[in-house]
Amino acid sequence: MQEFDASSDAPFGRTGEGRDDYRGANLQSAKLENALIERADFSRTNFQHLRATSCRFVDCVFDHANLADANFRTCEFIECRFRKTDLRMAGLGVGGGLFDRCTFDGIRKRYMSFINPVFRGVTFRGKDWSHLDFSASGLWDCAFVGDVRDIMFRGDFLVTEFMHEVNGPPRDTGLHGVNFADAELFLLGFTHNCALDDIVLPKSGTAFLCKSKDLYASEPWLKTITRGDILMGLQGYIKMVRDYDSGSTQPRWIVSKHDIVTWTEHEQEGARLYDLLKERLVLRKAADAD
After folding, report:
1. 13 in a domain, yes or no?
2. DSSP H or E run through 244
3. 89 in helix, strand or coil?
4. Which positions ≥6 away from 32 have C-beta within 8 Å?
């Protein structure tokens, strides 16, 4: 494994933007420790199998870079850009880590994994981040745009073995001030007491936030207003939420109209039941509270 000396001169001088120029460099299997790297351009750099520990990247560009199977342990990225970046099998936030005001656009993410990264001020494009388990990540003042599908958010580690990576419980987990206004939500999951604080819901009105226990308590009422396969679909949806909430670890849930339609397999009836649930679990409770 080659040592990457960040203190030495960049191999290709400076870019027109005044950044240290590493564009197209071959740094495969490099090892980087305790480094501060500022204003560097790593576009199309081969960082495959990189092992970076306790490093800080500030205002760096990783456009089209190969970061496949890279491992970032206790690293920070401040105002960095990842455009068309290959992050397949990369480990983010190993031992903790921070992505602050970074930009991700068109990344490749297959088998990308998380331990306990914290994202602050990041905009996630749904098509790039769907079908993913964020594990015990923290999202603060972030936003999702577009269709967001099949994502799991956890407030704690799924297995306790991860605790040795961060010397204890994960830090700053959950969704705080996350904005879904310009998103549509499909099959999102929440577990292990994942915080849902100050959430901005889709402006289309296709999702609402409620207490998990209120959703479960609505099941007898649902049996009085629907029958047959549609009722079975709704019960299947509520069972899924209960399964994620094993041990009553998830106090709040985001209910999506798209999920109700999917589980009932009937667009019009599913939409009607979603509206009734929203009225019962959100609007009526708000009126009762007043």
Report:
1. no
2. helix 228-244
3. coil
4. 4, 6, 50, 51, 52, 53, 55
CA 122 – CA 82 distance, rounded (Å): 12
Given a contact cutoff of 8 angstroms between Cβ atoms, the answer to whether 94 and 71 are in contact is: yes
Q: Residue 125 forms beta bridges with which residues?
A: 145
* 260 in any annotated domain: yes
8 Å CB contact between 174 and 198: no
**Token pair for residue 101?**
């005001």
Q: Which residues contact 135 (CB under 8 A, 6 or more apart)?
A: 113, 114, 115, 116, 152, 154, 157, 158, 162
132 occurs within a structural domain: no
Q: What is the pLDDT along the chain (290 residues), one digit of tens a residue?
A: 445 566 566 788 889 888 999 999 999 999 999 999 999 999 999 999 999 999 999 999 999 999 999 999 999 999 999 999 999 999 988 878 999 999 999 999 999 988 899 999 999 998 899 999 999 999 999 999 999 999 999 999 876 555 556 567 899 999 999 999 999 999 999 999 999 999 999 999 999 999 999 999 999 999 999 989 999 999 999 999 999 887 678 999 999 999 999 999 999 999 999 999 999 998 556 545 54
Tell me, yes or no, if the pTM score tops 0.85: yes
Number of domains in the chain: 1
Distance CA 275, CA 261 (A): 11
Residue 279 DSSP symbol: I
**Residue 63 maps to a domain:** no
Q: What is the DSSP string of 159-198?
A: SGGGGGGTTSS-SS-EEES-B-TTEEEES-EEESS--EES
How many residues does this entry show for the chain? 290
Task: Using only the alpha carbons of the chain, give its radius of gyration.
Answer: 22
Tell me the residue range of the domain where 270 lies.
206-290
